[in-house]
Amino acid sequence: MQLRIICGDITTWPAEAIVNSASESLMSTGGLDNRIYQAGGISLRAACSSLGGCPEGKAVLTFGYKLPARYVIHTVAPFWRGGSHHEESQLLSCYRASLSLAREKEVHHLAFSSLGTGDKRIPLNRAADVAIPVLLEEGFGFSRIDFVCETQQEQDAYTKAVIFYWLQQINDAAKEDIHTVLEKALTALTVLRQTSDGQEPMAQADMLLSLRHTLHPFAALPVPRSIMNLESTARQVMDIYHLAGTKAQAN
Question: InterPro entries in the record, alphabetically (predicted)?
C-alpha cells in the first residue's frame, strides 16, 4: 500500500472513495464537510438524511453522486475535551470503521480528509499521531491511501508523523532486519508527497538519493539512538521535502 500526503481539494479527488469528517446528524456543519455536501449535490444530502445519523467513532457509507468518488464514507470524530475523555481512541475507531467499510466495497484507492481537526478541534499533531500508525499497519488490501490536506500545515503535520513512524521502525529493528526495514522506509518516504504516478523520474531518483543519504547515517548510529537523533533526522527529511517542493514550484 502506498500512502501519500498531498495538498489538494478532496471534492475533486479521483479516488474510489473519500472519507468525510461528519457530524453526528450527518448534516453539514460548515467548512470542508459543507463543501463535500455541496459538491455531491442534493442526492448526497438526501442519502445522509435517510440514514438517521451516526454515533461518534463509527462510520456510514453513501454513494458520491456528483463527486468524482464513487463512495463517501462519513465518520464522526469526537470533540476535543482536553484529551482525557478517550478522544484519541474514538478517533482511532473512526479510521478503523472507515477502512472496514472501504474494504467491504472492495475499494483500492481511498482518500482521507483530516479527521476531527476542524470544528471538533482535535490538535493537528495529536490527530496525525493517531492516524498514521493505523493506516500504515492496518491499511492492507488497498493499493493507495491519500491524505488530502487543505493546508501546508496539515501536510507537514501528517508528513512528520510518517517520518517519525519509520524512524521508530528503524530504531526498533533487530540488527539482522535493519536493512529490510530501511529499504521499506525509503520506498514509503520517496513517494509520500508525490503528487502523481507520473512524477519525473529524475526528481524521484533525486528524492530517493537524498533520503538514503539521510537515513543511512541514522541507521548506522549505535543503539539506543536518542530522541535528539530522531528529531534531527526528522528535520533533515522535512527539509528534503520542502526543497523538493520549492524546486517543483520553480519548474
Answer: Macro_dom (IPR002589), Macro_dom-like (IPR043472)
